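Q: Here's a chain of 178 amino acids. Please give me its 3D structure as tokens.
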Amino acid sequence: MKTSLSMFIVAALCCAVPAGAAERHMMQPIVPAGKLAEARGLKNPLSNSPEVIEQGKSVYNGKGGCVTCHGIDGDGKGPASATMNPSPRNFQHHGFWRHRTEGEVFWAIKYGSPGTAMIAFGSVLSDKEIWALIQYERTFAGSHGPGMMGRGGGMGPGGGMGGREGMGHRGRKGGKDE
């Protein structure tokens, strides 16, 4: 009953956002500037073992209600996504994982992401459930790898990466800008 109620609340809040389908640019931070250093300092204490990933999947599809907005495949096209502006993040996009740390993703799940329909889940999910959820969400990126996850550097003010590593697709001849 509690899970159904929390999923209903998530769906209702998601649908209260103005219509539109524009996704925020991949480089736009998901954590407010004043909290970025704190968020980047957070490290996932859980492994990416099959058991932890399965726990994260259970949270994603159940108690967390993530599937409602981010979709069954993590592509940002869940049933409530059509009414959101900006649209939910696409966890399949390698840029999402390359340009932020796991601490930033944790912070956004726990406290919400200002300017989006991403509400705070800190009162619904335990820290352990959030960390397991992140391990599952990372699986949507497939072979793109973890990028900045866990390295602490991140992108944006004060956390920029030098050299080709921070250039994304721009560093490859003929590559597409993200």
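Q: Can you summarize the key feature?
A: DSSP finds seven helices and no strands in the chain.
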